[in-house]
Amino acid sequence: MQDGFGRKIDYLRISVTDRCNFRCQYCMSENMTFMPKNQLLTLEEITLIAERFIGHGVKKIRLTGGEPLVRRDMSDVIQRLGRKVKSGELEELTLTTNGSLLEDYADHLALHHVRRINVSMDSLDPIKFKEITRGADVHKVLAGITAAKNAGIKVKINMVALRDFNEHCLLPMAEYCAAENHDLTIIETMPLGDVGADRKLEHIPAEEFIAPLAEKYSIEPTSFKSAGPARYFNVKPLALRMGLITPLSQNFCDNCNRLRLTTDGKIFMCLGHNAHVDLRAAVRDEGIEAVDRLLQKALKLKPLRHEFNAQLDGSAKILERHMNVTGG
Ligand code: SAM
Ligand code: SF4
Questions:
Q1: Structure confidence by residue, pLDDT tens digits, 307-317
Q2: What pLDDT score was predicted for residue 271?
């Protein structure tokens, strides 16, 4: 698949639920309303649509949300899509999770060909973690990460950079990741949905965020590339691989290879735009073949780049859609 700008599209992110057992302050507002359950794609629909996309050249699928592991039939989704990895039709099935239910799921994920996962953790400090997630327990997440590692799954920690909140959490996080052999990725906050906070105040460029780490360790660029937009660095002598995802301070849209399927069956071609096609209605009315037609339409809708900088400085309107709907 190619979009209108000649970019190759082979990476699908599926938000399997917009619900979550955390309420991270940069992701959700305190009182979120979620989609009615009858609007969500069923397990059957998710897997049929994913299989159709694989037929069109999707090589990697990431399951996300909301919190993917709170979905009741999630073990079936993993099992069904894991078969595609086993058969060689899919190169990789991965997951982004808050880790709180990982202890229960780690062996199941490993059994069904999930080799790598991303776990979000913005601080190791239990009080800070509780504050940013509005009530969650970091020890539960750490136990989940250990279970994943013991099951043979490679873990990458996602840490969102928040000005005047977690800059000093980076050093202990980097040292923990190095000791446990996890990768670490720093993500700049994106202005998605009203969360009741001033997005401009919480934003900090990744290069500035890592300054406390650079005081103690040497941070050297590497040529390593992944399927995503991160730029990678070696933190020496820690032997830590650290990625920076910098949607605001250093745009990476030129190499964007992804499309996103939402919980209610819409394809969004960009996290930062509203343009989308509605697959759910078409698939329910016309059958799964409708995917082929709408996919061609969606590819033409993919914009050249997001508008997060303009949204942050107030010259463009912030999107109403929160991150948990499109899937991070
Ligand atoms: N619940 C899972 C989790 O937290 O890993 C998966 C969904 S979450 C939306 C995916 C990723 O998006 C997480 O790493 C989270 O920290 C990040 N995220 C959420 N809202 C964000 C925002 N406004 N800007 C940048 N990253 C965000
Ligand atoms: Fe839930 Fe993930 Fe959003 Fe946090 S970032 S509220 S864990 S979906």
A1: 777 777 777 77
A2: 81
Burial class (CB in 10 A: 0-12, 13-18, 19+), 215: exposed
First CA to last CA across the chain, in angstroms? 22
Which ligand 1 atom sits nearest the alpha carbon of residue 191? 23
- The predicted-structure confidence for 162-198, as pLDDT tens digits, reads as follows 999 999 999 999 999 999 999 999 999 988 888 787 7
- Report the chain's mean pLDDT, rounded to a whole number: 92
CATH number for the domain formed by residue range(s) 11-326: 3.20.20.70
Cβ of 67 below 6 Å from ligand 2: yes
Per this entry, what is the length of the chain?
328
Rounded to whole angstroms, the Cα distance separating 39 from 28 reads 20
Residue 33 identity: T
- Of 151-155, 172-176, 246-250, 293-297, the one with minimum mean pLDDT is 246-250
Q: Measure the CA–CA gap between 26 and 273, rounded to whole angstroms.
A: 18
The pLDDT score that the predictor gives to residue 136 is 98
202: which 2 tokens? Answer: 């919480």
Q: Please give the distance, rounded to the nearest whole angstrom, from the Cα atom of residue 171 to the centre of ligand 2.
A: 23
Does the CB atom of residue 40 touch ligand 2 within 6 A? no
Residues 6+ apart with CB under 8 A from 173: 121, 123, 124, 157, 159, 184
Give the distance, in angstroms, between the CA of residue 163 and the centroid of all CA atoms in the same chain. Answer: 21
**Exposure of 153 by Cβ count < 10 A (0-12 exposed, 13-18 middle, 19+ buried)?**
buried
Strand partners, 185: 158, 243
Name the closest-CA residue to atom 14, ligand 1: 120
| 181 CB-near residues (< 8 Å, 6+ apart) | 149
The residue ranges of every structural domain in the chain are 11-326
Burial (0-12, 13-18, 19+ Cβ within 10 Å), 278: middle
Q: Which of 287, 178, 197, 191 is nearest to 240 (CA)?
A: 178
The predicted model gives 7-30 an average pLDDT of 93
